[in-house]
Amino acid sequence: MRNKIQKYLSGEREGFSLVELIIVIAIMAILIGIVALAVIPYLEKSRVGKDQQTVDTVYSAFKNEIASQQITADVSFDITDSGVTSKPAGFDVKKFAEALDCTDAAGLGALEKKLSSENAKGQNITCKFEYDTKTITVSVGSGDNEIKSSNK
After folding, report:
1. How far apart are CA 99 and CA 108, in angstroms?
2. Is residue 41 very low, low, confident or very high in pLDDT (cuts 50, 70, 90)?
3. CA angle, corner 87, sides to 113 and 47, nearest 5?
4. What is the pLDDT of residues 96-141, one digit of tens each?
5. pTM of the entire structure?
6. Which residues are CB-neighbours of 61 under 8 A, at least 6 positions away?
7. What is the DSSP string of 52-73?
């Protein structure tokens, strides 16, 4: 006990002072800030890549359904958060939904909710087939930030 009191009175204390702890915390905060600034752009790129994969999946299923249903007319519809906006004539949306492992046409809304990049979030997935040119297009968004999958 006497040794501890002597160490305390002589200034030879064990542990860290409050100032030393604050300096360490400040240095860690600066390092975390630098790392965060370097990582944030890659997070958005990964979200865009994930959305592109979702669009590619919808495109593949749409292409297969166009071929299997032997569609001979133009088909166009949007997938929204509540399902399909309109039921195109001659195209069985329910089979299309089943090809995407959705229970029904309304279940396709879950695909739209999966979109997570800044430019695609909350946007409709547009599916188009032009019979004359045999062009199949699936896209999200518009302009420079459009995520698209097409055979042309």
Report:
1. 11
2. confident
3. 20
4. 888 888 876 667 878 878 888 888 888 889 999 999 999 999 999 8
5. 0.74
6. 96, 99, 100
7. HHHHHHHHHHHHHHHHHTT--S
